[in-house]
Amino acid sequence: MQTTRPRGRPRTFDRQAALEAAMELFWRHGYEGTSIADLTTAMGFTPPTLYAAFGSKEDLYREVIQFFLLRSERRRMDAALEQPSAYAMLRSYLYAAAESFTDPHTPAGCMVATAALQCASENQPIAQEVARIRQHMVLGFVERLNEAKTSGELPATIDALALANFYTAIVQGMSVQAIDGARTNDLLAVADLALSAWPGTKDEG
C-alpha cells in the first residue's frame, strides 16, 4: 500500500475534470499499469499537488472508482432494477452493458467488472475493494431474483445466488470481449443468448 504524502494545499482546480482524466487512465491501463507520472501529466498536476489533493495513488483510485460508479455503473444498475419484471431487469442491464462497454467515447469494457482482477501483493487492498463492489452488485441482483421467486416469475426451486453469479459472469465476459475488440452487435448477440437461458417467465414489462 502506498503511503499518503500530503504536501500542502493544492491550487484551486476542477476536481471533476481531474477525476475524469484519472479515470480514463485507470480504465484504459488498470491500477498497476498507471503510474504517478501518467496521472500527473493527464491531470496537469505536479506530484506534490496530486498528493495534496488526493492523498496517494491508492486514495485517488478509490475516489475514481466511486466517481465511475455514480456516473455509470450505478445508473445502469438502478435503471435495470426499476424495470417491472425480473426478466426486463436483466434484459435492460445486459443491453445497457453491451452499449456501454463498446461506447467509442470511453475505454472499452467496464472499469469495475474487470478492474484489478490480479494485483501484486502490495496492491491487494485495491483488488479486495473492487471485488467487494462487484459482490455488492451481485447481491442486488439476488435480492431482485428472490422477489421474482416470491411473485412466481421464477420457480421456487431456483438458486437465486447461482443465477445472479451466472449472469454476472456473462457481464464480466462481455467486458473482456469488448476490450478484445468486440462490437456492440457482438455483445448484444451474447446478451440475447444469455437471456434465452432465463429459467422463468419472459415478461418484458
From TrEMBL:
Keywords: DNA-binding, Transcription, Transcription regulation. The keyword Transcription regulation applies. Residues 12-72 form the HTH tetR-type domain. Residues 35-54 bind DNA. GO terms for molecular function: DNA binding. The keyword Protein biosynthesis does not apply. It comes from the Bacteria. Pfam families: TetR_C_13, TetR_N. InterPro entries: Homeodomain-like_sf, HTH_TetR, Tet_transcr_reg_TetR-rel_C_sf, TetR_C. This is HTH tetR-type domain-containing protein. It comes from Herpetosiphon geysericola.
